[in-house]
Specification:
The complex is a heterodimer of chains A (370) and B (123).
Chain A (H helix, E strand, L loop, with lengths): L1 H6 L6 H6 L3 E5 L2 E6 L4 H10 L1 E5 L4 E6 L3 H6 L14 E7 L5 E9 L4 E5 L4 H11 L5 E4 L3 E7 L3 H6 L13 E6 L2 E6 L8 E7 H12 L4 E4 L1 H10 L26 H6 L5 H10 L3 E8 L10 E3 L5 E11 L4 E9 L8 E6 L2 E8 L12
Parallel strand pairs in A: 3-13
Antiparallel strand pairs in A: 1-2, 3-9, 4-7, 4-8, 5-6, 6-7, 9-12, 10-11, 11-12, 14-17, 14-19, 15-16, 15-18, 16-17, 18-19
Chain B lengths: L3 E2 L4 E6 L2 E6 L1 H7 L2 E5 L6 E2 L4 E7 L3 E5 L4 E6 L2 H4 L3 H4 L8 E5 L11 H9 L2
Classes of the chains: A alpha+beta (370), B alpha+beta (123).
Chain lengths: 370, 123
């Protein structure tokens, strides 16, 4: 245990987490706070009621420059990046030759460059993948001198505007380079909770200063990875490695919306033959919301059965939703069982327990669309 | 009889030959907000160190093991309605189940309060 600890990476906010009483756990190679003294449930409810500050510095930040950056990146993702105006952000995924998902990511047109945010556990592989596949005329810069934090919740805009009034004008999935409390930041109005809020890229050497300023506001509490997970699950958002991975395609993952119209017509991204065929003819399974009828949560890898007792799929994320005050889950089911309202059973501890396929999200999104 | 404690962080209180079992304050603090408790069925025969119950927090499910051999005679149905009782009053109202014991001498293998306190401090 002690040996593992010494090898863990630390974010620029690590000392602050420890000072705040964060319970530190290894996550994607980093020593990260899973919860603070408020506890997972309290942190979750606080974020939905006011504002929560999350350290997501373990995620990878990458800048692509060069004349052909858009066309070259489009070979690796099914999104329409050419149509993204400066200052706009899009959710996308790196696909594989077999049409499955290598990682999901955020792509921002930052004007003179593309700014990408990729998952912590995938970032090394993503960078190898990009370096191997992005052609001449694209330079990749791994941004390792910046931390990343998220301020999420209905009070996030009010709080952040005290330090940078311009943030109220940003709309959901928009980006700006702004000074926050005099610190040069990249700000995106986005997040992973279903709430309004921001993701803020800040120089490592100013990160703690900014975090302390934000936490100094009455509305803001520090939030750990535990509540980050319950919040995103209630919001119906995928966790890479659980809900999407190299065994699932975007169509199976119910992410058809990330395959934009022009890309559907033109293809030209990895795995396009598989993905476009599934778009046209349908996939044989789909990611859906699952609501257990009782109070017992169903965790990942729980078998999903039809009412005849036959296995039709598996839970990929499952737990308890503090806002909906009930167990919630998502998982994959055979396509004939994917319609909301379909009754299924979940095998929890050897006992079939009734559940229902439901629409996602469990907690409504409250993004600021202007 | 004074409470006894197991290394799995259960407390055991024997009264008139029936043992009441719950999890300790240390255990509930480690688990965090408890959202569901699955209790054994009345009449179920439990084996020392075998599965007895499951507690679920927002984060994860954790097994509760039987600290003694015996048979379940009563369960705390209040936990079905209000699992947070385990956080609020782990060693009183948040008890899990009651069991008749096969062999009361097994109690001698458990820790008393002072020994449990030392055990927890050593973790």
């Amino acid at each position: 245990m002690a040996d593992d600890q010494t090898e863990l990476l630390k974010t620029a906010l690590h000392d602050l987490h420890v000072e705040l009483g964060g319970k530190m756990v290894p996550f994607a190679g980093y020593d990260m706070p899973v919860q603070f003294p408020l506890g997972v449930k309290g942190e979750h409810l606080h974020t939905r009621a006011k504002a929560g500050l999350f350290d997501v510095s373990h995620m990878g930040q990458v800048r692509l420059t060069g004349e052909h950056r858009v066309a070259e990146l489009e070979k690796l993702v099914p999104g329409d990046i050419a149509i993204l105006k400066p200052g706009r952000t899009r959710y996308s995924a790196f696909t594989n030759d077999d049409g499955t998902i290598l990682d999901d990511l955020m792509i921002t047109n930052a004007g003179d460059s593309l700014f990408l945010v990729i998952n912590a556990a995938c970032k090394d592989d993503d960078i190898v993948h990009m370096r191997a596949n992005l052609g001449d005329g694209v330079s990749l810069e791994e941004i390792d001198d910046r931390a990343l934090m998220a301020l999420q919740g209905p009070e996030a805009a009010n709080v952040l505007a005290r330090f940078a009034p311009a943030v109220t004008e940003l709309k959901f999935m928009s980006f700006a380079e702004l000074d926050i409390a005099g610190i040069a930041c990249f700000v995106t109005r986005s997040g992973y909770t279903g709430e309004d809020g921001y993701e803020i890229s800040v120089p490592n050497d100013r990160a703690e200063e900014l975090a302390r300023k934000l936490l100094g506001e009455d509305e803001v509490e520090a939030i750990g990875l535990g509540a980050r997970d319950s919040l995103r699950l209630e919001a119906g958002l995928c966790l890479y490695g659980n809900d999407i991975d190299t065994t699932t395609t975007p169509v199976e993952g119910d992410l058809n919306w990330i395959i934009n119209k022009r890309r559907r017509a033109e293809g030209g991204f990895k795995g396009a033959d598989v993905i476009l065929d599934q778009l046209e003819h349908g996939a044989d399974r789909k990611r859906v919301g699952i609501k257990p009828e009782g109070k017992a949560p169903a965790r990942e890898h729980t078998s999903i059965l039809n009412t005849d007792g036959e296995e039709i799929g598996e839970i990929t994320s499952g737990g308890f939703g503090p806002t909906v005050d009930a167990p919630i889950a998502m998982g994959y089911v055979a396509i004939e069982f994917a319609a909301p309202g379909t009754k299924v059973d979940l095998m929890v501890r050897g006992k079939a327990r009734p559940a229902e396929v439901v629409e996602l999200p469990f907690a409504p999104h409250r993004y600021f669309r202007g | 009889m004074a409470k006894k404690f197991s290394q799995e962080h259960e407390w055991i209180e024997l009264e008139d030959g029936i043992a009441t079992i719950g999890i300790t304050d240390y255990a509930q603090q480690s688990l965090g907000d408890i959202v569901y408790v699955e209790l054994p069925e009345i009449g179920k025969k439990l084996t020392k160190d075998g599965d007895a119950a499951v507690v679920e927090s927002v984060k994860a499910a954790s097994d509760v093991y039987a600290p003694l051999d015996g048979e379940v005679v009563e369960i705390n149905e209040d936990l079905d309605v209000n699992p947070a009782l385990v956080n609020e009053a782990p060693e009183t109202d948040g008890w899990f189940f009651r069991m008749s014991l096969t062999d009361e001498s097994q109690l001698d293998e458990l820790m008393d309060e002072a020994a449990y306190k030392d055990f927890v401090e050593g973790l």
